[in-house]
Amino acid sequence: MPFVRIDALRADAERLDALGRAVHDALIETIQIPPEDRFQVLTSHDGSNSTLRYGNYFGIQRDDGIVYVAITLRAGRSSDQKQALYRRIAELAEEYAGTEPRNVFVILTENASLDWSLGNGVAQYADADADGPSGAAR
Fold it and tell me: Of the listed 2, 34, 101, 133, which one is catalytic?
């Protein structure tokens, strides 16, 4: 069960929705999350009251089309799966939202099953770590 936060500069509702769909579709395709497993916070920054900062780190020329994608998920993905996810997010962000791949900045944060409460004050995945990871539960 990934939790996704997407921050974009001066994005309208249509672009935010397209970016959310791009990330969700990439998660389904590359790490096989269930289609109904969609938990996202989509935020547009107006550039005045709130904004995004970026640099040209690693020689990548970013601009105001920058999109930050922060994904929190349970640990257990391989390096190949993570690389495929990054690549697919960039591809779909360009296809769905017109965001150039150079402006797609993704960070994954992994944690343990006990770090999740999906409602009702219960850690629904608490026993999953002891039993081994479950693909549908991540």
Answer: 2
Residue 128 CA to residue 114 CA, distance in Å, equals: 8
Residues 138, 31 contacting (CB under 8 angstroms): yes
CB 39 within 8 A of CB 23: no
Whole-angstrom distance between the N-terminal and C-terminal Cα of the chain? 4
Does the annotation mark 2 as catalytic? yes
The pLDDT tens digits for 44-71 are: 999 989 999 999 999 999 999 999 999 9
79-103 residue pLDDT tens: 999 999 999 999 999 999 999 999 9
Q: Do 112 and 9 touch, CB atoms closer than 8 A?
A: no
